[in-house]
């Protein structure tokens, strides 16, 4: 299972192979992460990856943390019979490493990351679409109208897909063979069309769309041929004249 949480300060990816985190566990982990979110907020594009492995033979949880910052990646790990204890110590160590890095950051890398984030927020990211047109298209099960209403997202989403693939070298290596960026973009739109009723009204549309990237990519990696066929059919539908 992978849980992804992203805000203006820090993107968090939590991997727990073999089982899902309960809502209570997620809430506790979010509380543990609060100091790290605040501390990492000084850096653009900060990414925290937490991996939890449970070893049944010793009844212990092993937590590994990787905090990616501009110009540096910080590492930490800990283990304990109790998940909260291992998670607490792992995050505490990352906080100490982060404090040390803040005393001597990579200024050039930080500036470059800030420029990229500013460009994405102020130039690339589209404004929210007209909810009425999108909602009517979904209600009428009209995928062509749905895609037409979201035409302003095309370049932004393609760039987001490209950046997302960089997080998974094994997926990026398959681009151009059995994995196509255009198919992934179309699959995100298809998932948005199918799951539109699940979107919270208060959620910004681009953030909700962004949240569909990871599950879409993972499904495509499992079934690339089926995804390609589905995306090709969707393109045929949306390219039909209105």
Fold blueprint:
Blueprint: E1 2-6, E2 11-15, H1 23-40, E3 47-55, E4 60-69, E5 72-80, H2 83-103, H3 107-124, H4 131-139, H5 143-149, H6 154-165, H7 169-172, H8 181-194, H9 205-210, H10 213-222, H11 224-239
Parallel strand pairs: 2-3
Antiparallel strand pairs: 1-2, 3-4, 4-5
Helix pairs in contact: 1-2, 4-5, 5-11, 6-8, 8-10, 8-11, 10-11
Keywords:
Double Stranded RNA Binding Domain, 5 strands, Rna Polymerase Sigma Factor, Chain: A, 2 domains, alpha+beta, 5-stranded mixed sheet, 242 residues
* CATH homologous superfamily caption of the largest domain: RNA polymerase sigma factor, region 2, helix turn helix motif
Q: Provide mean pLDDT, rounded.
A: 79
Q: Major sheet: size, sense and barrel closure?
A: 5 strands, mixed
Head-to-tail CA distance between termini: 40 Å
H/E element sequence: EEHEEEHHHHHHHHHH
Count, helices? 11
CATH class of the largest domain: Mainly Alpha
In percent terms, what proportion of residues is strand? 15-25%
Helix content: 55-70%
CATH topology of the largest domain: Rna Polymerase Sigma Factor, Chain: A
**CA gyration radius, whole angstroms:** 20 Å
Uncertain runs are none
Count of spatially separate domains: 2
Q: What is the global morphology?
A: globular
Q: Which architecture name of the largest domain does CATH use?
A: Orthogonal Bundle
Total strand segments: 5
The chain-level structural class is alpha+beta
Side by side, the strands of the main sheet go 1-2-3-4-5
């Amino acid at each position: 299972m992978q849980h992804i949480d992203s805000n203006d300060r820090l993107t968090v990816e939590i991997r727990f192979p073999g089982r899902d985190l309960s809502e209570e566990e997620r809430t506790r982990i979010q509380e543990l992460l609060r100091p790290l979110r605040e501390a990492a907020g000084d850096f653009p594009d900060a990414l925290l990856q937490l991996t939890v492995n449970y070893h049944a033979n010793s009844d212990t949880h092993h937590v590994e943390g990787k905090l990616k910052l501009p110009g540096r990646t910080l590492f930490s790990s800990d283990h304990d019979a109790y998940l909260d204890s291992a998670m607490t110590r792992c995050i505490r160590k990352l906080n100490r490493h982060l404090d040390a890095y803040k005393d001597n950051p990579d200024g050039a890398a930080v500036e470059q990351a800030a420029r990229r984030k500013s460009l994405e927020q102020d130039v690339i990211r589209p404004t929210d679409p007209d909810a009425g047109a999108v909602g009517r298209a979904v209600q009428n099960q009209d995928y062509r109208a749905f895609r037409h209403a979201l035409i302003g997202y095309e370049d932004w989403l393609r760039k987001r897909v490209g950046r997302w693939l960089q997080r998974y070298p094994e997926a990026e290596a398959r681009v151009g063979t059995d994995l196509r960026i255009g198919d992934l973009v179309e699959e995100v739109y298809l998932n948005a069309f199918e799951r539109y009723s699940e979107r919270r009204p208060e959620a910004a549309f681009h953030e909700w769309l962004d949240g569909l990237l990871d599950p879409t990519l993972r499904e495509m990696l499992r079934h690339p041929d089926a995804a390609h066929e589905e995306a090709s059919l969707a393109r045929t539908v949306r390219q039909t004249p209105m």
